[in-house]
From TrEMBL:
Transmembrane segments: none annotated. This is Immunoglobulin domain-containing protein. Residues 33-132 form the Immunoglobulin domain. It comes from the Eukaryota. Keywords: Signal. Residues 1-15 form the signal peptide.
Amino acid sequence: MLVALLLTCSGGAAGAAGAAGEAVRVLGAGVAGSPSYVMAGQPAVLECRFQLEPQELLQGVTWTKDAQLVYRWLPAGRTLENATAGVAAEQRRPGWDVHIARAATAMAGNYSCSVHTDRGSAASRRFHLAVLLVCKARIETEDSTGVNCTVGWRLTCARVFPDLNLTAGVFDADAGKFIDRVTEWTKVVYSDDTFGYHAFKSYHVAEIPKSSVFLWSLSYQDQTPLVTGNVSSGAVHRAWSGCSEPPPPQDASLHVQLLYDGGVGAGTGAGTGADCRGRPRAPVKAVYTCANEILYQDQDHHVDSPASKELVCVNGEWREGDTATPWPVC
């Protein structure tokens, strides 16, 4: 999983006690370096930047999250932390900055720092710390072309936070647009207020162009893309289209027999039936045997022959069924 921090400023005005020019001024607060994202496991520092007047004495710095105390720094290294806020402050210099060892969704909220001196106090503008938990979506292909000529994609996004925007569907690269989108998602809300999604969509073979992909993307509220992925339809189409004629026997004494989903045929067009597009079904196996041997195929399409070599049609290509099996010697 990918966890990131997105920093955006919200409303709130700086305030100060004491005469103008005589008390501390808070210049700003936020994540050190102002990164767009902070990856999980990397240290993040919440900085409170301020300026003291000459001879002004610093008496403390207070951090709040959603108006509740998170961390208070006092002179001589004395600190007070609120452990329930999910933020850990490490003893580093300057001690009034908050060091986050690892981001978690519980840390999301509106933060502010206040600086206290012998002349008064001043508060920073509030900034929103959004913790993004971005899932690595899993796509599973369900090929039912042998039953009802459909192929389906099951998309699972296990855990995200906050509730992000998900887009998925069949995207035609040639046309440069979605030809269909997933509109119905099953949403799960977990006890830690994170979310999970999954959806399933199936299509008939004829509905999907060869140039298309099943595309999914995840974006933040402002449509900023976070992660995306796709599964090409090319391999599925190659499987639908089947294989052309198998290679001729290496030995003139060998005989090749083609096996179809419906049984054994003497050649293309014999016992083939029709594929999902209404064309003659292509063979699924080519079995090479000695010409004087009888080939027997059981109901599970297993071939019983004392000496045979099988080639299997896989994604439009002929491949050896068992590379360890030698070619028959007649």
